[in-house]
Amino acid sequence: MERAHGCLLSESELAARHLVTYPHPNKTELLLADLTGAGLKAIGLNNDVSSSMDYPFTQRLSDALHDHDAELDGIRYVSRQHNRNYCYAIFQRSGVQHDSHAELSDELIRALCSRFNVTVIEA
Questions:
Q1: Which of 61, 92, 114, 121 shows the greatest Cβ crowding within 10 Å of its Cβ?
Q2: Confidence band of 114 (pLDDT split at 50, 70, 90)
């Protein structure tokens, strides 16, 4: 079933989503390669890296940044789903540690589905 300008998610897909925290035991800020705005242009790229479905390319880019600077904890890039927000890819070497996770409340799920035009279907 297709919907114009929206998407469908099953109840089971939503049930698998959680809010997760990963604090660093010693750092209050992580050092991130900024793949937004001027930072992106400085390395000769454009926002295609954030919107592309070419995962092998973006994985090679991530590997190159990881290998280029041992101090980097990860990457910041523009969200493909919401272009006014950012996403983060945090390298395993960053030292962040799983702290907690919580299921999404029914109220939060309803609010997010309404905001992003998502219809929940039974699995």
A1: 61
A2: very high
Whole-angstrom distance, CA of residue 95 vs CA of residue 27 = 9
Grouping H, G, I as helix, E, B as strand and the rest as coil, residue 87 is strand
13 Cβ partners below 8 Å, 6+ apart?
123
Q: Catalogue the long-range contacts made by 86-92 (C-beta closer than 8 Å, 24 or more residues apart).
A: 86/36, 87/50, 88/32, 89/62, 90/22, 90/30, 91/66
At 64-76, the pLDDT tens digits run: 999 999 999 999 9
The DSSP 8-state label assigned to residue 10 in this structure reads: E
Q: Using alpha carbons only, give the angle 65, 66, 67 rounded to the nearest 5 degrees.
A: 90
Query: Which amino acid would we find at residue 98?
Result: H
Flag whether the pTM goes above 0.85: no
Return the structure tokens found at 121. Answer: 């279907």
Measured at the CA of 69, the angle between CA 66 and CA 19, to 5 degrees, comes to: 50
Beta bridge partners of 100: 21
Residue partners of 116: CB distance under 8 A and separation at least 6: 7, 81
Question: Whole-angstrom Cα distance, residue 48 to residue 79?
Answer: 11
